Amino acid sequence: MIRYTNVFDNKNMKIVEQGGCFYVYEHQMDRSNSAYSASSAYFMREMNVKKRQVLAQLNGTSIRIQAGAMQWTSGNVNMSSGVNLGNFLGKAIKAKVTGESLAKPIYEGAGCIMLEPTYNHILIEDIGAWGPGGVVLDDGLFLACESTVEEKVVGRNNVSSAVFGGEGFFNLSLRGSGHAVLESPVPREELFVFDLENDVLKIDGNMAVAWSASLEFTVEKSSKSLIGSAISKEGLVNVYRGTGRVLMAPTLPGTMNSLESNGPEQTSANAHLFSN
């Protein structure tokens, strides 16, 4: 028997999301600061830059996590690497092309597993809700999943998306039943969700963090003509076509135009808008 003190009853830790066996804890204040770091910590907290941790509660079940992500376990929980001579080469190739860890340790039994803290935003996704084909993830998003979720690497089926899409040649795909934990660069509140039904979504840049495997992903000109694309200054766009879902991060760091180029171009026709 284990008695937990200042863990689950910690007033500084708040559960902000839950799905399956996973719970996301958010540290409301970073109290371990010195006089030199207190100012930075204060403004980080005001801007929602907080430490977050994932807790998995196992009840005879099992999960897979990124290598090195475990902070502590309690109870009758056992770990296996999930790597053997038969699957080592395949896992090594998958890790190389997706940027994920080679070995994703499997934890099973009855007890708790707490993952290391991160400043990234945590999303818990019901993989079954993405349909039978599952979901395709942008590189580096995967953190953990229930073992009922199947992993596979999917490659581009056309040259345009592989070369110009900005999403890489291969991505990790999850399918089946169960929940997965993703590390997102933006909070869920800032994600745009597009549910397509035999329709088309075009995005200027690689701002999609996840999309249904059932969607056809290509890269196309924003206009039917090269001249039109040049005049519109949009060039190539990522196109998602078919039936499925897309999660888009419109506020993804690095996607904003420079301040000098924001707003309408100043010409003689609209110069009065900028004058005092």
UniProtKB/TrEMBL annotation:
<dbReference type="Pfam" id="PF01987">
    <property type="entry name" value="AIM24"/>
</dbReference>
<feature type="region of interest" description="Disordered">
    <location>
        <begin position="257"/>
        <end position="276"/>
    </location>
</feature>
<protein>
    <submittedName>
        <fullName>Uncharacterized conserved protein, AIM24 family</fullName>
    </submittedName>
</protein>
<dbReference type="InterPro" id="IPR036983">
    <property type="entry name" value="AIM24_sf"/>
</dbReference>
<dbReference type="InterPro" id="IPR016031">
    <property type="entry name" value="Trp_RNA-bd_attenuator-like_dom"/>
</dbReference>
<dbReference type="InterPro" id="IPR002838">
    <property type="entry name" value="AIM24"/>
</dbReference>
